[in-house]
Amino acid sequence: MLRNFLNGLRKNTIESFTGKNVLWHFLAIVLTYIIVTSGFDWFYFESTRNVFLQQLTLLPAIIGFFVPIAIPTIIYIFGKLRKNTRNIIASLGVAQAGLIGYLISIVYKTFTGRTQPEFLTHISTMDISRDFNFGFLQHGIFWGWPSSHTAVAFAMSFALVMLYPNNKKVKFLALLYAFYIGIGISISIHWFSDFVAGAIIGALVGIVVGKNFLEVPKQGFGKLLQKPPDLC
């Protein structure tokens, strides 16, 4: 199963950059350019400089580290306890989506080097939302464009939407979580355009991975998954 997971990881990562999927990356870049150059990033930043609001949205930055691990783990344990192979496969799909979303966002950050907004302070009076340091590792891989928190949240959420197409509760909670993380991050440690780009890239990854995990026989899992998994 681990071998199949790794094979799928490579295949789905490549597919996220092939064919029409490239257009979604282009869309993320174009929208970022429009949001940044129009001044909306800075306007959004100044409009949300409220200590209470920022403290309230600090939680997404924290849980964004733990939930991506917890969700697939819970689905996996649930599947093991109920001896439901379909849910076990689904847990691998969700985990893979999150991992690919994270890796892609890290690659972009490596070359864009965007300066992050000040958190809980507003010392600078200059618009720093336009500061990109293009090159290789000019500003690390943990800050900048796009938002890794958002990319991972949307990747896992859209994978869940694809893997549980008949479960309205899962769809609602998954999308609610994704937007909660994304909006929260855009008010705290990222610019609004970081959130937008992360959401687009993450959604793309989630759809690609979810779609391929629904076609498990074609990926070498044999007949372990004959229909979309459910949580019941």
Quick gist of this model?
With about 230 residues, the chain is mainly α. Helix content is about 65%, strand content about 0%.
Kindly describe this structure.
It is a single chain. With 232 residues, the protein is mostly helical. It contains 9 helices and no strands. It has helices at residues 2-15, 21-37, 40-47, 51-56, 58-81, 85-112, 148-163, 168-187, 192-214. Helix 1 crosses helix 6, helix 7 packs antiparallel against helix 8 and helix 7 runs parallel beside helix 9 (192-214). It is globular, with a radius of gyration of 18 Å. It starts with a helix and ends in an 18-residue tail after the last helix. The model is unreliable at 217-229 (pLDDT under 50).
Which residue ranges are poorly predicted, with pLDDT under 50 across at least 5 consecutive positions? 217-229
Q: End-to-end span in angstroms?
A: 23 Å
Q: Helix share of residues?
A: 55-70%
Q: What's the helix count?
A: 9
Structural class: mainly alpha
- The whole-number mean of residue pLDDT values reads 86
The radius of gyration is 18 Å
Oligomer: single chain
H/E order of the elements? HHHHHHHHH
**Overall body shape:** globular
Strand content: under 5%
Largest sheet: none
Would you count the extended β strands for me?
0
